Amino acid sequence: MDGPRTDALRRRLLDPARWRPWEFVVWALAFALPWAMPSHALMVNEIAIVALFAMSLDLILGYTGIVSLGHAAFFGFGAYAAALFAKHVMPDPTVGLMVAVGLSAALGALASVTILRGSDLTRLMVTLGTALLLLELANKLDGLTGGADGLQGVVMGPVLGLFDFDLYGRTAAWYSLSVVLLLFLLMRRLVCSPFGATLKAIRDNRLRAMAVGIPVVSRMAVIYTVAAAVAGAAGALLAQTTGFASLDVLAFDRSADVLLMLVIGGVGWLYGGIAGAVVFKLLQDTLSSVTPQYWMFWIGLILVLLMLVGRERLLKPWKMFKR
Does 128 fall in a domain? Predict the structure, then answer.
């Protein structure tokens, strides 16, 4: 009896990791957009970056239940790390990306100590404080970071030594999409593994998870480190594809926006971060072109209606994709 039960459990656990036909279509369309709509390649690049950032927050919020108001700390740290590496060491984007990911992971491992104890309110304040500390540090070290003027003069080399960044942003879009797809596959495999199952157990009931022998503290530290590394990758992509890094990458607005994306798209589902990023950026672009001064008002109104009506009702068609 143990054999069939074990096999059934394994199939149930790994079923979300299987690719559905619609997923191939979605990713194919994403990679085709810079070619089919070259004038919107820069928008595609930006959406890919913020989608990766949203998925990194979903790892800790949606899958583990760790609330954060300062996730921009890792996004901005990765951006500055990649920009400084390109400016002072070497301009190779792939090497710079790996360096930024490694440094962001180290920062995440260090910061994970601060979120292992206390309530959700405590974690909100601690994560927000971490981001504010890095923001002020970047502002004061203007000789290194450029301060309020930003880090300028960042010139990136060709991707893999073959593909130069063009003015239309097509190379940047394909580069970012490739990194997003690779990290998406890794994150998906992670959350659909037995390790991911323990994260969901911690999210649902931490005390019960401890009672059944799950090492809650180490699991939280590991996933926080992984999420920091992914957020750092998103920040590095932004700095590399724009050739610029400023204090804006560490601002509170970054953390707030990515939370809004998860509110729109839903948590505990990696595609929720992608859907939320697409909707939020398209709304932002459309509304800011129509009402440049009041676009945040309309986004706020849409979010209020979303909460009043119920996101589950409005996004009911997406449920079929989560199965």
Answer: yes
